[in-house]
Amino acid sequence: MTLQQLEYILALGQQRHFGKAAEQCNVTQPTLSAMIQKLEEELGTKIFERNRQPIGITPVGQQIIEQAREVLNQADRIKSLIEEARQEVSGVFRLGILPTIAPYLLPRFFPTLEKKFPKLDIRVSEMKTSDIKQALLTGEIDAGILANMPDFEEYAINHLFYEQYYAYIAEEDALFEKDKIRTTDLATSDQLWLLGEGHCFRDQLVRFCQLKPAQNSQLTYRLGSMETFMRMVESGRGVTFIPELAVMQMSETQKRLVRPFAVPVPTRQLIMMTNKNYIRHTLLNAIIKEIQNAVPREMIKLRVSQVAL
Questions:
Q1: Is 188 exposed, middle or buried (CB count within 10 Å of its CB: 0-12, 13-18, 19+)?
Q2: pLDDT of residue 74
Q3: What is the pLDDT of residue 207?
Q4: SS3 of residue 26 by DSSP
Q5: Residue 221, pLDDT score
Q6: Is the domain defined by 87-161+271-308 classed in CATH 3.40.190.10?
Q7: Which end of the chain is more exposed for a tag (fewer CB within 10 A), N or C?
Q8: What is the C-alpha separation between 283 and 90, in angstroms, rounded?
Q9: How far apart are CA 124 and CA 285, in angstroms?
C-alpha cells in the first residue's frame, strides 16, 4: 500500500469516473485503474463497484476512503511542517473562493503572486460558503476566501479587507433617478435580481434590506449569476447588487447605472479562512499580504460610513 494508491482511490471516490480521476491525478486511466485494482487485491476486498455509472463505493470502501483521507492529510502535515520550518513560499496551495469574489479579486493579485513566487502552485476552485467549510474540514482545500459570517468559530479567521455593496439600476427603473439608495426604496423597484439561497452575498443583503417579503415577485430568484443579472439590468430591466471591486472594472457607460447606498452603507468583510491547526503561516501571510496590496488602501479598514453585515 502506497500514498499514491491512496490518492488514486480518494480521487475516484470524489469523481466516480476513472477518466476524470486519472485527469485529477495527472496519470493515464489504465495506470490509475491498475493501481487501484492492485490495492484491492492486496486488501482482499472491493472498494469500488465498477458495474455502475457513476461508479459506486462499497460500504467497506467508504470506510477505507475516509481512512485514506486522514492518512494523506497527516502525510501532507509532515511536508507542511518541513516547509514552514524553512519559511518557504512554495508547493501546492489549494484555495476555495466565492463566485461573487473570484472574478473581481483574482485578476488583481494572482498574476503578481505567480511572478513573485514561481515555486508556488495555487489551485483555485470556486465554491459556495457551505462547500468551503466542508472542504476545509475534509482537507480538500487549505484555505478559503469568503465573506465573514457569525458561524465560523471553529475556523481560523484572517482579515483581508472590507468591500461595500452598490445597487446596479436599469435606466427604465424608478430608482435610476435617485443619487443614493435607501433600503426602503427597493420596494418600489419593478424587478430585483437576486442570487439563490445559500449565497452569502445574497443572504446578507436580504437581511439588511429586509427583502424577504419580495421573494415571490422574483421571476428568476433561484437562477443566474451576478454577471447575468448585470446584463439584464443593462438591457433595461430592474435592479441587482454588485460588490465594490466589480465597479472598479466597469466602463464609464456601465458606471452610469451604479448607485451607492445611503449611510450606513452595507459592507462585507472578506477573510482568508483556514483550519485552526493550519501550519504554513509563512505561505498564508505572504498570500494575504499580496491580496491586501492589490486592493485600494481605504478598503483595508471599515470606514465610518459603512456597517459590516
A1: exposed
A2: 82
A3: 72
A4: coil
A5: 44
A6: yes
A7: N
A8: 7
A9: 17
Q: Give SS3 for 109.
A: helix
Domains 3-83 and 87-161+271-308 share a fold: no
Which CATH number is associated with domain 3-83? 1.10.10.10
| pLDDT (0 to 100) of residue 223 | 54
Name the residue with cell 435617485. Answer: 178
Superfamily of segment(s) 163-266: Periplasmic binding protein-like II (3.40.190.10)
CB 19 within 8 A of CB 29: yes
Burial of 93 (0-12, 13-18, 19+ CB in 10 A): buried
The whole-number pLDDT of residue 158 equals 97
Q: In this structure, are residues 275 and 152 in contact, taking their beta carbons and an 8 Å threshold?
A: no
Mean pLDDT by 10 residues, the chain (309 residues): 92 90 91 94 93 89 91 82 80 92 96 93 93 91 94 94 95 92 80 72 70 48 73 90 94 96 94 94 95 97 94
C-alpha cell at 247: 465597479
Cα distance between residue 265 and residue 169, in whole Å: 17
